[in-house]
Every structure is written in C-alpha cells, then in structure tokens.
Amino acid sequence: MLRKDFLWGGAVTAHQSEGGYTEGGKIPAVCDLTSTGEFSDFKDGIDAYHRYREDFDLFQEMGFNAYRFSIDWSRMMSDENTYNEAGFEFYDQFIDALIERGMEPIPTLYHFEMPVELYEKYNGFASRKVVDIFVELCKKIVDRYASKVHHWIIFNEQNGILQKGPKMFFGAVYPKDVNPQTFDNQIMHNTLIAHSLVNEYIHSKGGKVMGMATVVQSYPETCHPLDTLESMKAQSEAYVFLDVFARGHYNSYYYANMKNEGTMPEIQEGDLDILKKGMTDSLSISYYMSTISHYGEESLTNVNDVVIKKNPYLEMSKFGWTIDPIGLRITLRQLYDRYEMPIYIVENGFGYDDQVNENGEIIDDYRIDYMRKHIQEMKLAIEEGVDCRGYLSWGPVDILSSRAQMKKRYGFIYVNRDNDDLKDMRRIKKKSFHWFKHVIETNGEEL
C-alpha cells in the first residue's frame, strides 16, 4: 500500500513548454544555445504560456495532486540588477491556478534557464558572481511564494555537471587553459554553494527542499573487479551531490579523488561550512535508464544527447535508452540504504514518436507498459522498506525534448505540432491518459 498522501503528478520545464519567447519581459536563456538546429528551438514550446489552464484542467481530470515546473530565470530578470515584475505576476497566476485545481506546486529554481548575458559576461556558474546573483533571485522568489509553496527543488539534475559533454546547461564553456575535470569540479562546487545558501533561506521561511540528482544505474560489464570499480566511479557522480544534500559535506572518495588527480576546484574560506547548510528534507531523482561500466571506458556521455553503452540483457528504446524498471528498484534501495531519507521520483517516462491513427486516437501501449513496470518496481522497493513518497511523470503533456525535438514525446496528452509546423497545438488524450487516471484513482493498486 502506498501512503495516503502519495504524490501523483507530472513535471516539465518552462523553456520546453511555455513559449511566449518575447512576452512579459523574457530575454534569451542559455538553454537556447543548446539546441543544435537539427530539430527545432524553444521559442514556441507548446504555448503553455497562454494555455496552461487548459493543461491544468486535463491534469486535474487525471487526478494529479502535484505538479513540478521551473521558474524561468530569463523571465524573472531583464539584466543582472533588474527584476521583472511581469515574470513574477505570471507565476503568481500560474501557481494559483495549480492550487485552485488541488495540485501542490513544486517549483524548480534552476532548470537551465539562466539569461544568456550572464554566460557572456561571467561564464555562468563557473563564476561566484553568478552564484550571488542566483541566490538573491531565489530569495526574491521564495519571499513571493513561501505561503503557497511547501516543497522546492533548487537545481534540476545538478550532477549532470559531471557528465562528459558541454556545460552550456549551466551557462559555461571550457576555458582553453583549464583542465576540463577541474572546470567541471568548479561548477559543481559553485552550484553546491548556491544550493546550500538557497536551502538555508527556504528553511528559514518554513519551506522544505527536495535535493535532486539524475541517477543512471551503472552495472559492471563483467565480473572483473576493475569493472566493479568503474561502476562505483560512475555512481559517485550522483553521490557527490546527494551526500551534500543528506550529510552536508563531500564524500571522502570524491574529495580524495580530486586531490589525487589534481582537479581540486577553488574552495574559498568558509565554503565547507556553507555546505553544512545544504542538508535537505528529502531526496528526489530522475530515472530513465541504466548503463554498463567497463574499466577505462566512458559509460555515459552527453554531447548532443545522452549516449549509454548497450546492455545485452535489456531492450533499448527507439532513442537508444535502456528500458530497465528493475534498475529503478535497485536505485531506490541503494539510495535509501545509504541515506535513510524520504525519496521522491520527480521524473520518469518513455519518449516515443507517437502517431495519431485513422480514428484520431493515440494508442501508446508501449508507454503504459514502460510506466506500469516502473511503478510496480517502485512499489516493490517500498514493500522492501524504502520510504518513497511520490511519482511524477516527465512531460505529462507532450513538450519539446531537451534537444528541442518534438518527435520525442512523453505525454499522456498529445500536442498537435511538429518540429517545423506549429499546426494548432490542439491537445488530444492518449490511451495512457485514461490508464494513468485509473492508477491515480486506485493510489497505484491497479496498474
């Protein structure tokens, strides 16, 4: 049995959904610089800026009691010294509309939407100046919504900083004269300082924080001990952040490794005391896939998209991600064994190029199968003692993918647009809409 107050809902970002690119004082954001031009861009999204109430009505019909979204930094500031009241007013109405429909708003304060000018002027989170600007913005946001928001996520998938690939999601590019790993560690450290300061402020206002990481379960490719070590190293990229959220300090392995490799970031006097303020109330994860680790090889890269090694024992999606529901159960057990903190799943779902059939229907049995198996494994983990308190699906209404591709759809609700043709953006319920509605109605008892 799941908790009676179990959170069921969905999650999106502003830049992949809102559109309204030049409205309400919004300025360009660094996420715009991550789209390759191969598919589309983020300028129109699914027009949620104007249509969010329509989407919320559909979520209410499904029975959602929680909704995760991002507050777009590039909508909240016109430059580093000027806050944009029109942006705050938009989220006033947005949050009120969720509450009116019985959904708990769960804002993410950073989901790759830093104003471009902060990348151009300071190289993003590589700079402590940007840390200061971000912390002050977050304080303004928390002051505004503390009476309406109970749970906050500060950074989305913060451990993505350590994945091999560009760092534009955090508004930064590699300087020519700096070791790339040292640079990654610097962004890691700076964002953990920002997280800790914002976490402390949210607590001072009575709110709770869900420290977030993306977890890609990594299995040793063989039973060779070196492959096991490589697997442990891959997992450490999540643990280094989760340890700060749970314990208030770097874990001994990663800290020693930075020393041994000569990749230690600049740590200012008092920083390690600031990290002690980073202990959150719960942990939250995104989980989509697993990979395998072989000594001396990369198990995951994220250049133009996430690329993982193929596991011969698992199926792969059309987009090259493993389908591994048991990996979710393993992940939940590992995290709870390590931290003994409440855990929320705040992203999980199945991307596919859904098609409308001749009857105007979208029969997405593949998505139902994927999510059914993952929820079942989540329930088994709970039966095994894990304190898991929520399941939020990724992209409950079709949105652009992280690389601005509309054909990689995750939603229970189809949006009638393509990469190049915006069409009418009409919303159409998929078969999975009715399935997930029943799952929520039965609090996960009937899958």
TrEMBL record:
<dbReference type="Pfam" id="PF00232">
    <property type="entry name" value="Glyco_hydro_1"/>
</dbReference>
<dbReference type="GO" id="GO:0016052">
    <property type="term" value="P:carbohydrate catabolic process"/>
</dbReference>
<dbReference type="InterPro" id="IPR033132">
    <property type="entry name" value="GH_1_N_CS"/>
</dbReference>
<feature type="active site" description="Nucleophile">
    <location>
        <position position="347"/>
    </location>
</feature>
<protein>
    <submittedName>
        <fullName>Beta-glucosidase</fullName>
    </submittedName>
</protein>
<dbReference type="InterPro" id="IPR001360">
    <property type="entry name" value="Glyco_hydro_1"/>
</dbReference>
<dbReference type="GO" id="GO:0005829">
    <property type="term" value="C:cytosol"/>
</dbReference>
<dbReference type="InterPro" id="IPR018120">
    <property type="entry name" value="Glyco_hydro_1_AS"/>
</dbReference>
<keyword id="KW-0326">Glycosidase</keyword>
<dbReference type="GO" id="GO:0008422">
    <property type="term" value="F:beta-glucosidase activity"/>
</dbReference>
<dbReference type="InterPro" id="IPR017853">
    <property type="entry name" value="GH"/>
</dbReference>
<keyword id="KW-0378">Hydrolase</keyword>
<comment type="similarity">
    <text>Belongs to the glycosyl hydrolase 1 family.</text>
</comment>
